[in-house]
Amino acid sequence: MGESEKALSPPGRGLGEGQSQATPPRTDPLPGPLPGGEREIRAALAAAARGLADVSPTPRLDAELLIAHALGITREALLLNHLDDPAPDAFAPLLARRLNHEPIAYITGRRAFWTIELAVGPGVLVPRADSETLIEAAIEHFDARPPARILDLGTGPGTLLLAALDHWPQATGLGVDASAQALDYARRNARDLGMATRADFRLGDWAAGIEGAFDLILANPPYIGMHETLPREVRDHEPGAALFAGEDGLADYRAIVPQLAPLLAAGGAAILEIGATQADAVSHLLVAAGFAVTVRRDLAGHARALIAA
């Protein structure tokens, strides 16, 4: 990830050197469905959204997801059929966690990404919509010839690899991560999605020791500088090893780029996520390694991915 804006993306990595410690838990009274009155889900949602307005850019959505999780139903089912039901007792403790800036994905244990849903939790980078830009770029690049073999460097809970395998059902792939905890989630997600025979996962240091030729290499490395300011839900909760990359946020690109060419099959491409201000710096590294580089922008118009071929 790069620049603080990567971390700001709503539905990433614990504290890094130079980051402040976690803020003490919030102890002020929570908004309803709480003591004294508002007990129906409709009213509870409104009260919770008011309380979350200073915590989240999507307070109403957060409240809906939390109540749906408390009920064990989908958000759609909640909105269609349950707004006049009593608010569940389990909602208040979930709301308290969100008011203390814990990511929604950690509270619910799930995060939608591209066409799949992933299990996530503490110690794992929360997948972000910005990263879907890499999948879009890959689909466009391989429009005429689907990739047969895919490598995902820094796979986390399997985010990019499993999304790519879902799009290309004949492909197989390898995901590499330095976190055993993240790889546990990745293997679980592969099993849950029916991809366990197509996706292999390995503990490793980027592409060190990897052999073979891959049609598509995907990478979403840490790209936040050590002294950048982060929102509390990222700073206090997500793992720093998945966020921070040296003083300038480029340390992991310097490690990854020299490893790419020997692993790319003829006609293949490497697609790297970048921070919004890093296109020139990372492109320079790729061009120096012999690649032609194309920039891909996200929905907000920020440079978000580099395609190296």
TrEMBL record:
Entry EC number(s): 2.1.1.297
Similarity remark: Belongs to the protein N5-glutamine methyltransferase family. PrmC subfamily.
Alphabetical list of Pfam families matching this protein: MTS, PrmC_N
Family matches, as InterPro entries: DNA_methylase_N6_adenine_CS, HemK-like, N5-glutamine_MTase, PrmC_N, RF_methyltr_PrmC, SAM-dependent_MTases_sf, Small_mtfrase_dom
Keyword presence, Electron transport: no
Residue ranges of the region described as Disordered: 1-37
Function text: Methylates the class 1 translation termination release factors RF1/PrfA and RF2/PrfB on the glutamine residue of the universally conserved GGQ motif.
An annotated Gene Ontology molecular function: peptide chain release factor N(5)-glutamine methyltransferase activity
Binding locations of S-adenosyl-L-methionine: 154-158, 177, 206, 220
Catalytic activity: L-glutaminyl-[peptide chain release factor] + S-adenosyl-L-methionine = N(5)-methyl-L-glutaminyl-[peptide chain release factor] + S-adenosyl-L-homocysteine + H(+)
Domain Release factor glutamine methyltransferase N-terminal: 44-109
Top-level enzyme category: transferase
Sequence ranges assigned to domain Methyltransferase small in this UniProt record: 139-224
PANTHER family: HEMK METHYLTRANSFERASE (PTHR18895), MTRF1L RELEASE FACTOR GLUTAMINE METHYLTRANSFERASE (PTHR18895:SF74)
Residues binding substrate, per UniProt: 220-223
Name of the protein: Release factor glutamine methyltransferase
Domain of life: Bacteria
Keywords: Methyltransferase, S-adenosyl-L-methionine, Transferase
The keyword Ribonucleoprotein appears for this protein: no
Record GO biological process: methylation
